[in-house]
Amino acid sequence: MQYREIQCALRPIAFPSQAIEAQFIVDEKTGKVNLQADRYYFHKI
Fold first, then answer.
1. Pair 33, 23: CB distance under 8 Å
2. E strands within 1-45?
3. By the 8 A CB rule, do 23 and 7 touch?
4. How would you classify residue 31: left for phi > 0, otherwise alpha for psi between -120 and 50, otherwise beta?
């Protein structure tokens, strides 16, 4: 299985001054994307 990692920083709308360090892990075989980030900033929907 081949994975590609994408580093990025997300800026939440509620706190635009605080960037979230996020990491997208793309599975090349299935095309699925996993998002790893600090869950402290995310709210349950």
1. no
2. 3-10, 20-27, 33-37
3. yes
4. left
Query: CA 10 to CA 14: how far, in whole Å?
Result: 12
> What is the reported pTM?
0.33
For residue 36, what are the domain limits?
A: 3-41
How many domains does the chain contain in total? 1
pLDDT digits (tens, 9 = 90+) for 9-30: 666 666 666 666 677 777 778 8
Task: Answer positive or negative: Cα dihedral of 11, 12, 17, 22.
Answer: negative
Token reading at 1: 């299985």
Q: Exposed, middle or buried by CB within 10 Å (0-12, 13-18, 19+), for 4?
A: exposed
